[in-house]
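S.,

Sequence below, as promised.
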Amino acid sequence: MSSILNATPEQALPTLFLPHGAGPCFYMDWQPADEWLAMAEWLRQLPAQLGVKPRALVVISAHWQAQRFAINVQPCPELYYDYYGFPEHTYQLQWPVPGDPQLARQVAQYLAAAGLESVEESSRGLDHGVFVPLKLAFPEAEIPVVQVSLKQGLAVEEHLALGRALAPLREQGVLIVASGMSYHNMARLMRGGTQVDPDSQAFDQWLGESIALPAQQRDARLVQWSQAPGARAAHPEEEHLLPLMVAAGAAGDDPGTRIFQDQVMGSVQSAFAFGI
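The prediction came back faster than expected:
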């Protein structure tokens, strides 16, 4: 498989927006059986696509909101099984990845320099928006992970600003990973069926077009995302889209592109990268 980046550690890493699936979907039987297989295989191939091994991951998940931006500072974070009603074995998944308290402090310093308040989190584990996709991508669990929360209120401008504050990490071998879903209307997803929601198709097309624009135009469109075709049908609540804003903010002037697309549970799901 060709790489999406031919970089040395001294060059800036890209920023990524990944779909993390539905609960622990990659680790259980599903009907139909191949529903999540393409996404799972793409996640497994992600390190090869990157073409360079990150020294650490900073991950923003749709499943953590805090009053202020919160930063996981634990040296050995546990896993937080924040899903319900799934098979018992999915609550036994392990991914003993190390944290990086020094990197966490550096993240806090970058946020402070940008005028963004943050708090340390020393007890919450890594939620399934982190370990479910990244256990596939980095199964060795050897690359340190620092998780950063979304901020309650879910203002696009604040999450673009968070990304801009984190951007210098890209030149330090740190991969910024935004974990969400490009479509997240659970009521529609649970209906099942093979027909793809036209609102999902329309919104996904708009996302692909928007992130490819020059940075100023891109960010202006993202701020107004709720006016896009199919937007509120695709995201009745915006927490699964907000990580994309962080990835875009960290991109600087680097353009974005779609690097994966699949149809699952009647929706279009895409992954995007900036700076490839």
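The CA atoms of residues 2 and 11 lie 18 Å apart.

Coffee later?
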